[in-house]
Amino acid sequence: MTQTPNIPPVIESDEREYRDSGVPSTVAIAGHPLHPLLVTFPIAFLTGVLGTDVGYWLTGDVFWARASFWLLGAGIVSGLVAAATGMMDFVKIDRVREHQAGWVHMVGNVAALSLSLVSFILRWGNQTGAVLPTGLILSLFVATLIGITGWYGAELVYRHKVAVIGYGPKHRP
User: Fold this and answer.
1) Structure confidence by residue, pLDDT tens digits, 139-159
2) DSSP label of 29
3) Which of 42, 128, 156, 162 meets the CB 3.0–4.6 Å disulfide criterion with 65?
4) Against a cut of 0.90, is the pTM above it?
């Protein structure tokens, strides 16, 4: 028998969820959940801002400041699309709200998008002046938040079996 990892209090575990086939996403095409697909874009764009901010800091090349600005814009737009699909699952799937992982994932991502919007507004019309130190600090904080919320998102999928192709909790053996 496979042992269910149980590492409280940071990560919750539920033996029943470990054994069931999972809860399908409410936003899917042909049964394939869209949220995991869509999050790859804002993750790449918003963590990339940290790299381009560091590039500007080290070189002073305006290219990196402009790249940060455009990555922020793309990250915010794609993040809102990903957030819409994630929020639909958050609202419609009880299992998501029943676990701390669901709340940390949702609140942390809302915070990351909000901080990214603040950073974008600060850089509007002043792309180079807003990078050091404020923009760099914000991008470091956002990248850290995305790492944390990504961990908790994976907890929802892999430990709590949310947004997987399954039959849901009503069909437990």
Assistant:
1) 999 999 999 999 999 999 988
2) E
3) 128
4) no
